[in-house]
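thoughts on my protein:
***
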Amino acid sequence: MCVCVCVCTCMCKCCDRYMESYKMAIARIIAFILFCSSICHVPSLAVILRTTDKIVWANEFEPIELTCLIESISTNNPRIEWKKIKNGIPSYVYFQNRISGDLEHRAQLREPANILIFNATRTDTAEYRCEVAAIDDQRHFDEILINLAVRVRPVVPRCSVPDAVTVGTSSELRCLENEGFPAAQYRWFHNNEELPLDPKTSPRLINSSYTINQDTGSLKFRRVKKDDAGEYYCQAKNDAGHAQCPPQKMEVYDIDIVGIFLKSLAAFVAFICITVGICHAHKHGCFSSKDHSDNNYKTPGHEHGVVYGDPDEGHFRHKSSFVI
């Protein structure tokens, strides 16, 4: 009987210890679950934004979408705004649930907070800021910046090609285009064949002395050769497209025919000017020599050597004797 009582007492003590350990384990598990739950719920208490591209390129007159993705938010109907920042001055693009500013009628807001521009123009190049405010989140505000650059196709460049040059002299051909964005790179063509940047890479042009500046559009000949004669045109190109000027012909002469003609023309013009000047001066009496002095008046001589005196004297005198 005593043995049974002892055994029961020991079993009860063991059960109590087991239950206490079990309760402690359950409490630890519940604490761990609560801890994990609190960690997992932190992001939902903050509004967080991201974008697929912070630097966006677009071609002019083509559509482009600026992405403003909401990764985390717990507030319903958050306030969404877009601003355009150009030259440091911000202006509204999306405000009070409507598109405004210079994008009005050219853009729309797409879920969740993206801006779609239907036809981008060069004036849309700027920095754009997406702002989201969520009043029910612990972190209730976030923003993201996106740089938009609109590429503009070059227009027809202005080309300058001399009509004629002399063998052995230097010459320069120019090409300029200032509408495209980013700035265009220039290429030159001779008789419909592109000129390589280094003439030594072409067996046909290995003796040529030209240099090409792709940034300025200059084609310079250090010494012109007869083979350099022909038609030239320039092409301006960037990532948005290209444009070229009409071909222009350059002739190469052994002697300076143009220089001789211009010098002869200048001499002829100078001769005409001098002749006209002399005629004009003569017409206005610049070359006449009339003596208007009355003191040197002489009475004309008369026959027989008689010189008449002053009529007031009433007689005449013989200045020489008569010959009988």
About this structure: The two ends are 223 Å apart (CA to CA). The first helix runs from residue 2 to 40.
